[in-house]
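Researcher: Next entry in the queue.
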Amino acid sequence: MNVQGNRLLELLILVGYSIEFPAKLAQRIGGHEQWNRHVMYRAIRDRYVFMNRMKSQRYVIKSLQLTEKGFEYIAERAPEALAMICGRIDQMPPVYPSMTGKIQRLHAIATGMVMARGAGALVFPRDKPSLMYSEGGYGRIPVDPEAIYYYSPFEIRAALEEKDKRTVSKGVRLIGIIVRGHRCYCMYFTGATRMFWQKLSEENHVSGILSLLKARGFSVSVAVQIIIGNNMNVAEKLSHSSKPFGGRYYTVSKFFDRCCYVTNNTEGDEIVRLLLNPDLANDLNRQVLADYQPPRVNTREYDAIEPGSNRPVFLNYCCDLIPITMEDLSPTGFHENPIMLCFDYQCQTIQRILGPSVEVRPIVRK
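Model: Structure for this entry, 366 residues:
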């Protein structure tokens, strides 16, 4: 679905498809943030959308909803998008302003969708292969191994429950998946604190999704976790053991190949783009490691060696929590403390997690 060139129409489609859309997210739908803010204010002023303000605990929730005038604007310029939005609304139970928990859940799902879309993923049903067997999931749109596809929790639930209504896929924290090649990126939203987490339920759910994707023609074999939080301090909370709190809170698990933490802002959008686009990541890696020596042998233990000091260097700008929660990062054959490279806004948090045994440096771009 191509709506490029009309930023207002693009915003209205995203708001309508999300049902409840966080106002702050409107600044990150693509292009410059100041222009996106101007488009949002125009949509509110001209009554294409309505901003509803609700109070939840210590926070004020600002949510955008599509008005009747907004529906008419979409109907005139993109009637196929209107049909998609109406179909989505018909599948969802009504959401009222008092249902702040439900609204926050929809906001989290919208955040994952916008991040995936900003990284180049196809998010709308008409543009990607369907997971439903009844809708031609085996070939109406063939699976392209180089394309990036995003699927919401609603699409996943409908596909898992299609054959057997006794299958239950509710109660998990997943806010969507992104599929590219052999990797399935499972997205979670933790907000400002630790996530409630039922380890076996979450891992079984992901295993079921991988089986579903393979049955629908995707060649997935690896699951990667993307956790979205409000700030970097949450990454430190997630890296600590859950023993003081019991087993109800999230702990880093090696069930996933990687566990990448991203912030809910433009910096997080950049990391998601790097994760989903290996060419961009490789270019950045070459720039960052230009002043370092290559590893002595081809190994995954470290990425480079610092000249002169003979210290191993690790790249971790994607804030993978698995290596930084390991007790010992020193690879075999080195006696000096290792170095970890990341973005400048991540340094303090990662240093606190690792302690003094590892030196954390900000990366320098050429």
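Model: The longest helix spans residues 100-118.
Researcher: Noted, moving on.
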